[in-house]
Amino acid sequence: MSSRLERLVEIALRDVLDPEMGRSVVELGLIYAIAAAPDGKVAITMTTTTRGCPLAGFLREAVAAAAGAIEGVTAVTVTLTYEPAWEPAMVTAE
Questions:
Q1: pTM score, two decimals?
Q2: Spatial separation of the C-alpha atoms in residues 39 and 56, rounded to whole Å
Q3: pLDDT band at 93 (very low <50, low <70, confident <90, very high)
Q4: Do the Cβ atoms of 62 and 76 come closer than 8 Å?
Q5: How far is Cα 19 from Cα 40, in angstroms, rounded to an integer?
Q6: Which of these, 22, 63, 58, lies nearest to 45 by C-alpha position?
Q7: Cα–Cα dist 27/94, whole Å
């Protein structure tokens, strides 16, 4: 397991902004998990602020692109989940 690679992915995802909220997906608490395998495969579990969010596809693609641009990442899988449901208390103060 590559915690260094997971940290690099998290840093890259700070540049992915939710266009409606104007804040990063990390800051909004939309990223639930990042797991990197030794072979560079990265699995990201995320949510959106609401079920059926019209930006879900855009955000999912932006997250995959940001993670995939990191040296050492060989593949990216992004899974959307709504368990637990997102709530405003998940936003971090950065």
A1: 0.93
A2: 28
A3: confident
A4: no
A5: 29
A6: 63
A7: 7
Give the whole-angstrom CA distance, residue 8 versus residue 82. 25
**pLDDT of 37 over the 60 cut:** yes
Residue 77: what residue type? Answer: T
Secondary structure of the chain as H, E, C letters:
CCHHHHHHHHHHHCCCEECCCCEECCCCCCEEEEEECCCCEEEEEECCCCCCCCCHHHHHHHHHHHHHCCCCCCEEEEEECCCCCCCHHHCCCC
Q: Which two tokens stand for residue 93?
A: 């103060």
